[in-house]
Amino acid sequence: MSTLSSQAKKEIKEVVLASPESLSRFLSFLLRHHPASYPLHFDKHGFVEWGELVRAVQIRFPEIAEREIINVIENSDKKRFELREGKARATYGHSFPVDLGLETVEPPSRLYHGTARDLAQSILREGLKPRGRQYVHLSPSIEEAMDVGKRRDPAPSIVVVDSRAAHAGGILFYSCGQLFLTTEIPPRFLSLWEK
Ligand code: HQG
C-alpha cells in the first residue's frame, strides 16, 4: 500500500503537471485572460514584467525554473508568447482589450475558420463573432483551420471567409504571425467548405 504523505502526493502531482504543455496552457491563462486571482500588472500592450510573471507561474508550479518558462516561450510552435525587453505577453487570444500594435493588411482572398459542427449554422446565420475574445481568429489554410476546429470537434466544420470582399466592404484585417485577426465578419461573407 502507498504510504505517501498528502504533501508528497501534492508535490508529485505538481511535477507531473508542469509539462511544457501544461505550462503553456497556464501561460495562456495568465497572459490572455488576466485572472484577478494572480498578482499581474499589464501595460496597455498586454505586457507584464518578466519577474512578476515568473513569480505568478511559481505560485502554480513551485518547482519550475525560469529557464523552463523561457523554453516554453521560445519553443511554442504557434509563437503564442513573446519576451521582449524584460517583459512578456501573449501574441494573440486575449479576452481583455490590449493594443497589440498590429498592422492592418490586405488579406488573402479566402481565410478559414475551424469550428464545431454544431456551431456552424449559427455562425452562417449570425456571422463570426469574437465571443469571449478581443478578436475573431482566422487561418490562412484549410489544414490549419482543421487543427483549430479539432480542439472542439473531431470532424470540424470549416467556415470560408470571402476576405477579399469583406476587406473591400471596409472590414479591417490584422496580420498576427500565421493568423489573421478581425473584429467580426457578417454572414454575407461566409460560406461552408464542402469536402
Ligand atoms: C465560435 C487557439 C456560434 C467560434 C486557436 C469558436 C485559435 C460562434 C468559438 C485561437 C459564433 C470561440 C482562437 C456564432 C463564433 N455562433 N459560435 N455566431 N461566432 N463562434 O476559442 O477561433 O492553440 O475564442 O467558431 O488555435 O476557436 O490556444 O476561438 O468555436 O487560433 O494558441 O465561438 O485560439 O490558439 O472560441 O480559437 P475561441 P477559436 P491556441
Topology:
Elements: H1 6-17, H2 20-33, E1 48-49, H3 50-60, H4 66-75, E2 81-84, E3 87-90, E4 110-115, H5 117-126, E5 136-138, H6 142-149, E6 157-162, H7 163-168, E7 174-176, E8 179-182, E9 190-192
Helix pairs in contact: 2-4
The structure holds ligand HQG.
Question: What does this protein look like?
Answer:
The chain has 195 residues and is α+β, with helices and mostly antiparallel strands. The protein has 2 domains: 6-90, Arc Repressor Mutant, subunit A (Orthogonal Bundle); 110-192, ADP-ribosylation fold (Alpha-Beta Barrel). It is built from 7 helices and 9 strands, in the order ααβααβββαβαβαβββ. The protein has helices at residues 6-17, 20-33, 50-60, 66-75, 117-126, 142-149, 163-168, and strands spanning 48-49, 81-84, 87-90, 110-115, 136-138, 157-162, 174-176, 179-182, 190-192. The protein has a 3-stranded antiparallel sheet. A hairpin with a 2-residue loop joins strand 7 (174-176) and strand 8 (179-182). Helix 2 crosses helix 4. The termini are far apart. The mean pLDDT is 93. Ligand HQG binds at residues 28, 78, 80, 93, 115, 119, 122-123, 126-129, 131-133, 137, 148, 152, 179.
Write a short abstract of this structure.
The protein contains 7 helices and 9 strands; from the N terminus they run ααβααβββαβαβαβββ.
Write a concise keyword list for the protein shown above.
195 residues, alpha+beta, Arc Repressor Mutant, subunit A, ADP-ribosylation fold, 2 domains, three-stranded antiparallel β-sheet, 7 helices, 18% strand, globular, binds ligand HQG
